[in-house]
Design a protein that fits this description.
binds iron/sulfur cluster; globular; 9 strands; TIM Barrel; about 30% helix; alpha/beta
Length: about 200
């Protein structure tokens, strides 16, 4: 499933890859979420994504996500977003990301999203580097600081930036909130979806 509705948004599942291996990630045990099976047979190119979207007018927003990290497919995000911008200039476009793209690409990619993306939701999930390592198990060194740096860049350039944390038992959500707000981002708690609520 590449494009699926969840509440009033259309979500685009463009990859199953991720550089993290979060302890709470549904990809570890499940087929998908919200009744959708999200393991892809192949990563879709931009044309296939646009064909799946069809007319996005009924949706409040279109969200680049994945059962994985969408900015690992930066070129597809940019191509699809640009095409949607041309045809539906008022459509709200959001990226849900782990905030590690700059670390992956070795450059600041945020300026490449300017004018294309209205909102970025970045997974924080921990108030300290140690807790991030424990919960998100990044394959790349320096990941927590990279998430914070990516957030700073995004706050400077993207209209709406939200850091999120999953409501995991024992996680200090208020410390996450303080960290998010200190970076100039909004903060949102995401529900902890237990395995049995996946597909
Ligand atoms: S960053 Fe998201 S997709 Fe990647 S392992 Fe963590 S929860 Fe899963």
């Amino acid at each position: 499933m590449i494009a699926y509705r969840f509440k009033d948004a259309l979500y685009l599942n463009i990859t199953n890859r991720c550089t993290n291996d979060c302890t709470f990630c549904l990809r570890r045990h499940r087929e998908g979420i919200a009744g959708q099976r999200l393991w892809l047979e192949a990563e879709p190119e931009a044309g296939a994504v646009l064909a799946e979207i069809g007319d996005p007018a009924p949706y409040r927003e279109v969200v680049f996500c994945g059962f994985g990290e969408p900015l690992l497919r930066l070129d597809v995000v940019k191509e699809v977003a640009a095409a949607l911008r041309r045809t539906y200039p008022g459509l709200r476009l959001r990226v849900d990301t782990n905030g590690l793209a700059n670390l992956v690409y070795g450059r600041n990619i945020v300026p490449e999203l300017v004018g294309l993306i209205d909102a970025v939701s970045i997974s924080l999930n921990a108030p300290t580097a140690g807790e991030y390592e424990r919960l998100c198990r990044p394959s790349l060194p320096g990941a927590f600081e990279a998430v914070l740096d990516f957030t700073r860049e995004a706050v400077r350039a993207v209209p709406e930036v939200t850091l999120t944390a999953v409501a995991l038992p024992g996680l200090d959500l208020e410390a996450c909130r303080r960290l998010a707000e200190s970076l100039g981002a909004r903060f949102r708690v995401r529900p902890f979806i237990r395995d049995e609520e996946g597909v």
